[in-house]
Amino acid sequence: MIYPILLFDIDDTLLDFDSNEESSLKQLFKSRGIKDFDTTAKVYREVNNELWHKYEHGEIDINNLFNTRFAIAMAKLGITADGEEWEAEYRKYLYLGAEPVENSPEIIKRLHDMGYRVFAASNGIKEMQISRLKLAGMYDCFEDIFVSDEVGVQKPLVGFFDYVATHIPSFDKRKALMIGNSLSSDILGGNRADIDTCWYNPHKAEPSEEIRSTYEIEKLEDIFKIV
Ligand SMILES: [Mg+2]
């Protein structure tokens, strides 16, 4: 056992956030009387990505991101939207989205049964992530769940990993591996915290010159070859 402590990102690593987002946006826009889903979703995603980028860089806080993204996006389309109200409705749909990535529940369960200590290290809302992990049937395999809204700091900032390190009993960074799909949050964060990283890259995205992972996998089950 090289890495007995496994830190897993959640969105698009264990749970398919893209499909969850797509179906949640469809429900929200439909209930708000929006007919052109594709254009509206495109504008929303651009605004949302921009705000997440700012959040990862510590320029805005997470509530600012959540409560303004719909108002900003809809304003670009000439629609007046109450950002907080739209967000609350959207979140109701998101909470129920627990489509696994590949066979992640089996993989997590197997790792847990083999004696690995499995943790979640995610940017987002803790309550929502717990709800989704429960629905996907893998919540009980996690020793603890670290989510940025509770931590107060987000990946890739080193404060997030400091929090994780102090809240995991007998933590040893040489025995920990951060696994995730995002170079800019999971891998960069691991690098800054001096924790080895595994980049989950199922769509064979171009690697980055600046942000290098210790390992790269295309399929989740390849994790067994590393740990
Ligand atoms: Mg992710």
Short précis:
With 227 residues, the protein is α/β, with parallel strands linked by helices.
Outline the structure in words.
The chain is 49% helix and 12% strand. The protein is built from ten helices and six strands, in the order βαααααβαβααβαββα. Strands 3-2-1-4-5-6 form a six-stranded parallel β-sheet, with helices on both faces. The chain is globular, with a radius of gyration of 18 Å. The protein starts with a strand and ends with a helix. The model has no long low-confidence stretch (mean pLDDT 96).
Mean of the pLDDT scores? 96
Main beta-sheet strand count, sense and barrel state: 6 strands, parallel
Output the number of helix runs.
Answer: 10
Q: State the end-to-end distance.
A: 6 Å
* Share of helical residues: 40-55%
Which CATH first-tier class of the largest domain would you pick?
A: Alpha Beta
Order of helices and strands: EHHHHHEHEHHEHEEH
CATH architecture of the largest domain: 3-Layer(aba) Sandwich
Strand content: 5-15%
Secondary structure category: alpha/beta
How many strands? 6
Which ions and ligands are bound to the chains?
Answer: magnesium ion
- Rg from C-alpha positions? 18 Å
Strand order of the largest sheet: 3-2-1-4-5-6
**Number of structural units classed as domains:** 2
Contiguous uncertain segments of 5+ residues: none
Shape: globular
Using the coordinates shown, work out and report the CATH topology of the largest domain: Rossmann fold
